[in-house]
Structure formats: C-alpha cells, structure tokens
Amino acid sequence: MNKRKGITLLALVITIVIMLLLAGVAIQMTMGENGLIAKSNQAKKEQAKAELLEDAKLGYLNLKTKAIEEKSPTPEYELLLSTSEFLDKYNIVGDNITDKKGNVIEAKQEILNTLKMLYPKTDGKKTVGGVEIPESDKDKMILKLKVLDETKEIYFGAFGISESLTPIKIDYGNGTKGEIVDLYDGESITYNKGEYIIKVEETRYFAMGGQLHSFLGEGIEVEILNWGKVTRNKEYFDKRWNIRIPNVSKIYEPEPEEIVVFYENAKITEIPKDLFKNKKGIKDISMFIGSKTIKSIPEDLFKECPDIERFSETFSGCENLESIPENLFKYNTKVKEFYQTFSRM
Fold first, then answer.
1. Stated pTM of the model
2. Is residue 345 part of a domain?
3. Mean pLDDT, rounded, for 202-219
4. Average of pLDDT values for 274-285?
C-alpha cells in the first residue's frame, strides 16, 4: 500500500514538473525576446514604418505635382514634414517621427534619405518630349521643329507689326542665334530636313509662317515643349492673336493666361482638355484655323474661361470635326460675339 502511494506521489511530482516546464516554455514563447508578443509588436512597428513611407512618398509627389503646375522649383524634401496633411497624422519630436500617441516610428533623416534616393533632384532640369530643358531655359518659349521636306524656308517675326517694339531674341536651333528687329517682315531661315529646338526669349509677340505673312503650308511639324514667360502686348494685340505657330502636332502644357495663339493648320487630332485652364481673366481665345486633323473638342475646353467675350474663327476651317459638344459654351456667359466660330466646315 505504501509502495503504491509512493508511486502515485512520484507521478504527481513528475506531472507537476512537466507542467511547470511546459508553462515555462509557453511563457517563453509568449513573453521572450522571440515570443509572440514581441513578434506582434515588431510587426506593428514594421507596418507603421511602411505606412509612414507610403504617406511620405505620396505627400512629396503631391508637392512636386503642385510645383510643376505652378512652374515653381522642385520642392525641398524637408517641406513634406511641415505640410498639414503630414502633421495631421504624425508628430516631429527631435530627430524622430512619431505617431499621435508619441510612439517613435522612424528617424526623420531615414525618411528624407529615402525620398532623396527615390526622387533625386535634377538641378531644375525637366525633360519634355524627349528634350532636356535646363533651369536656365524655363522662362523661354521652346519649340521642337520637325522639317519633313528636304529644305524649308520659314519666316520668324511678329507679322503685322510695323511699330518699333522690342526685338525678339531667338535661338533658331541650327547654330544661329540673333535678334529679330524688323518685326513686320521678320527674318528668313532655311532649314534642312531634320529636328531643331527653337528657343524664344521672354516676349509678348511671336510668329512663324510663310513669306509675306502667308500660310506656311505643309513640310513641317511643331511641338510646343515649353511656353515660358510669353505674355501679350494688349496695346497692339487687342482682339487678335499675338502668337502664331503653324502645324502644331503636340502641346505639352496649358497656355499662359494672357496669350492668344493662332494655331495655323494645326496637326493635333484632339485638343488637350486642359489647354485653357489658366484663362480666367482673358476676353479672347486661341484659334485653330484650317486644321484638317482635329476631329473632336473636349466638352469642358472653355470651362475655366468665364470672362471670354469673343469666339473669333476659333474652329474656322476645321472641316473634319465629327461633332460639337452641346455644352461647349455652357460656362461662357459673358460672350458678346461669335464671329465665324465654325465657318468653312
């Protein structure tokens, strides 16, 4: 009997020891350095870091996009940390970024270094249509001229202007630079077949065309890469265009507010829907006279132009237009004149 009691007691002791060992293992698995709680906390930290990085990337891209729209310099990386969107979710405490409960997520410099690696600055350069535009050229009107004929003679000036106005400074893209002093007759340049980058200094009037102000015809295409700081001399260009560019095949950015462009024989198939987004105060609008390639018009093309008073020959000669949007002029309640807006179609 005593022997059986001894065996039972021993078994009980062994069971207790095993249970204690198992409990210790369970505690270690849960509470130790590599335990479940530690792993859970680590996972939460990694998730918070990943979320912070995504927020930082999105926030900085928004800053860059806004800078591009406003033609401002590339924003500094540190600017992100002071935006309201970022500070609504995070705090900057010393050298660290914390959540709103004060938990450190990541060192501030780590996030900045990551942004620098992902979005390196290019010293103000931008690339448009495969052409690199340095910071020093950002205020110039820049055109890519494609000469399709073996040779093509092009006149540059401000046709119709006989008054003595400021000369136009221009780089013709063929190794020749100069000033156009005789704005009425302009300067004649003969190009060989190929591509040329034309750069026009800040100006208020400019035209390309054929001899004696005539239509240039075929044989070239022009891409408008950068408008720069081109404006409008309203004293001499009231109620008419002040920029004339033939055979435009691509327009990479919206027009500046003041200018009125004569897109002679435009080669674009569809007008960019944001082309006139900057036109809130202008009374006249650009025209696409004689285009055989434009087939459609964005319905909201003139939505941002509430002060327009005249639509003069806007789509005159655009004979391949397939339809005209019903609400095209819905927001233009101040219009006083529609002059040959859709004539010769």
1. 0.67
2. no
3. 79
4. 91
For residue 79, the SS3 value is: helix
Give exposure, 75-100, as e/b (b: 16+ Cβ within 10 Å): bebeebbeeeebeeebbeeeebbbee
Calpha distance 59→79 (Å, rounded): 10
Pairing of strands 337-339, 310-312: parallel
| pLDDT tens-place string over residues 293-305 | 999 999 999 999 9
The answer to whether 92 and 104 are in contact (CB under 8 A) is no
Cα-trace Rg, the chain: 34
CA dist., res. 223 & res. 304, Å (int): 24
Q: What is residue 311's DSSP assignment?
A: E
* Burial of 285: CB neighbours in 10 Å, binned 0-12, 13-18, 19+: buried
**88 and 112 both lie in a single domain:** yes
Quote the CA–CA distance of 115 and 106 in Å, as a whole number.
14
- Measured CA distances, 184 to 7, 171, 175, 208 (Å): 120, 19, 24, 12
Selection from 265, 271, 330 nearest residue 295 by Cα: 271
Q: Which two tokens stand for residue 158?
A: 């401000």
Helix H or strand E encompassing 293: none
CA distances for 343 relative to 246, 248, 260, angstroms:
19, 21, 19
Q: Encode 204-223: b = buried (16+ Cβ within 10 Å), e = exposed.
A: bbbbbbbeeeeebeebbbbb
Strands 187-200 and 220-226: unpaired
Pair 187, 148 in one domain: yes
DSSP label of 175:
S
Give yes or no: residues 110 and 134 share one domain.
Answer: no
Q: Residue 62: which H helix or E strand, with range?
A: helix 36-69
Structural domain count of the chain = 3
- Which residues make Cβ contacts (< 8 Å) with residue 114, sequence separation at least 6? 53, 56
Model confidence at 223, in pLDDT bands (50, 70, 90)? Answer: very high
DSSP, res 211: G
